[in-house]
Specification:
The structure is a homotrimer. By secondary structure, chain A is an alpha/beta fold. Chain A is built from eleven helices and nine strands. Chains A, B, C: Pfam families: HK.
């Protein structure tokens, strides 16, 4: 069996419980996508309970969209406890670069918590890499999205951030990049329609959380599997969308459908994940 | 007319305004399900206004998913005010057993507020019953879900909690149980697919809120009606899902559709609510 | 090209970034509707960052559903900063009249922030106008919704509030009214089914935010365009709903679909916006 099929099977057999401290915009989508993949979500963000909750979980996902002073403390406490317990932690630095508050929170979390995976668009990852750069809201700077032309540069960036942080780095874009200091992958799945609905990035982080929760030893393959799965679902949803003449509302529904029906054979057959020479 | 048809009619004629203090994961689903049934939702959670808001309402629903220190105080104030005004209060102790914070909040609310209905899965109700037990996240311990084999035990548990609290008790599961100290019902409606989307439990509490808001004198029939309605909608949605070859995203949409189109005749014809000998 | 087509084109070319401080019930719908129209949403509500975030944005939308003491301060700071920068600010006084907290917050914001657009149902706008009146939850007092019979009275009210506040006033209802002190419009688009799902009002405010963000000089035409577009999408969604035999869940999806597929020609052809003699 293909390694991605193994990871998908592991999620569906183990049903990893994934703890999210995340924004209130896409939180429902994250919960439903986690269930669609085969995991089990729990959202809890109060300092009074996050350490206990993470103790029940197989992975922790921290997402700084709609950050507040209250949840910064919860993220810190949950992250430290997950580290102590050896549970994988996924960081989604949504909109870092857009405000000092997000920048300082991201910097503090990077200092205090050991992340296993950091996922962002190119401007977010570039911001973390350079301590510079700007982010227009939570969307990527469209000029700089990862494509064939800048794949080498973005991959090098991902490797640099991985070396700095010890985390596997995921850069989402037309081509998704997954890299650590030793190894890099390009995933050419997905569809531009995914940018027309909110939350595909947040959902991707949840899918990564499920995969690394099911098999924490296989960080890089889990990330490649997760991004392939999301991208393939984006393609399948678009194919179905054409047949029903729908728009962005239907697309969002079909994306969830695709994940809940994704099987290992389809994942293997359609995956356009390629290991890069570095 | 069947008593359940009467309750459904009452909701649609009176359009009860239902006040929710609930989690931000499924809050949109709760609002839309309330509207689909025929009620009118209002979500308000700040201590500055919850007492006034509950004063406009026919029922109050308290749900402790994504609880925070801030909303604990709001739940307490709203619950006490609803008691003072004689408005029915529904309690959904989401994830109780998973953290001291949830446990202590549930215990405090049970001490300070008189609940008319308490709805949970078996592990949540068992926790309340015993002051012991564990909850894996917000999902039920799958081994213990209410089925034919443990129906007697779970019904006795519900009756015990009802005696302790004075509330009608609803245990959701493959078989839903509704009981007070005098009377018990088993509802064999529903579909396993309901567990594949987030929020069916929260939505059920909202449906209960609408039914008891429309007819506060008929607590037990209202709960039986609400759980039957939800279960039947879960079945109808699954039947339609098969015809469109959809997944969990479509299922969620069809569940809402089913409630918005549910009529009294279908409710009566399909209800598998059975009064148990106790 | 019709002026409404120009505004729709402007949104799709400029992709205005719209900052929302809004309730957690319909926030996902607001984000997806903004994307469906062609804008780009950013939700941020912490006092630590709202001023910086609004600095990146073309418009600000303040919505007081699920208001908290924390977000009141954020709304004030963001509103003042938007004023300072000359960015249009849209105010959606959800549920004003239902609690002192909402009333005092609305009054304070009206005192401290210069709004470019205020959008509400008739009871909300009447409350602002009179400092009296009552609001049943977040839904309009059904007896008083704007129809042919009270169109003159409601238009006069809108003009009065516009004179008091300097803002363009939008009253949503079976007939939508858009007015300032010089000019008034009636928009006879929309469908009653829009009231059966939560968030159509909040989404309308987001659509207004996109339109005024794309062309801040054309406030009144932008509001008329936005309300026409929402109403037309409500009609298109209902027409499609009939063909698929769906309910309120499907309707919500189709509403989003319709906006994502709306073209200028359809907007012009179907718009029932009429300038009123005043």
């Amino acid at each position: 069996m293909n390694p991605f099929e193994n990871i998908l099977s592991a999620v569906r057999q183990k049903r990893p419980l994934v703890h999210f401290i995340t924004n209130y915009v896409t939180v429902n989508d994250c919960a439903n996508m986690t269930l669609a993949l085969g995991g089990s979500p729990i959202m809890a963000d109060d300092l009074c309970e996050v350490e206990q909750i993470v103790g029940h979980c197989s992975a922790l996902v921290l997402n700084i969209g709609t950050l507040s002073e209250r949840t910064v403390q919860s993220m810190l406490a949950a992250g430290k406890e997950a580290n102590r317990l050896g549970r994988p932690v996924v960081f989604d630095p949504v909109g870092v670069g857009a405000s000092r508050f997000r920048n300082e929170t991201a910097a503090m979390l990077l200092r205090e918590v050991r992340f296993d995976v950091i996922k962002g668009n190119i401007s977010e990852i570039a911001y973390l890499a350079e301590g510079i750069g700007t982010t227009k809201g939570v969307d990527a700077n469209l000029d700089a999205l990862s494509t064939e032309g800048n794949l080498r540069w973005h991959t090098d960036l991902a490797r640099k951030v991985s070396t700095q942080t010890g985390a596997a780095i995921v850069i989402s874009g037309p081509i998704d990049i997954v890299a650590d200091s030793h190894e890099a992958w390009a995933i050419r799945n997905g569809h531009p329609m995914m940018a027309n609905i909110t939350g595909t990035g947040c959902m991707s982080a949840g899918v990564i959380g499920c995969c690394v929760g099911a098999d924490p030893q296989a960080l890089l393959p889990s990330c490649v599997c997760a991004m392939s799965a999301m991208g393939i679902c984006g393609e399948l949803a678009y194919e179905k969308l054409l047949s029903v003449d729908g728009g962005s509302g239907t697309y969002r529904v079909l994306l969830m459908d695709a994940m809940s029906k994704l099987d290992g054979a389809t994942l293997t057959r359609r995956s356009k994940a390629e290991r890069l020479r570095i």
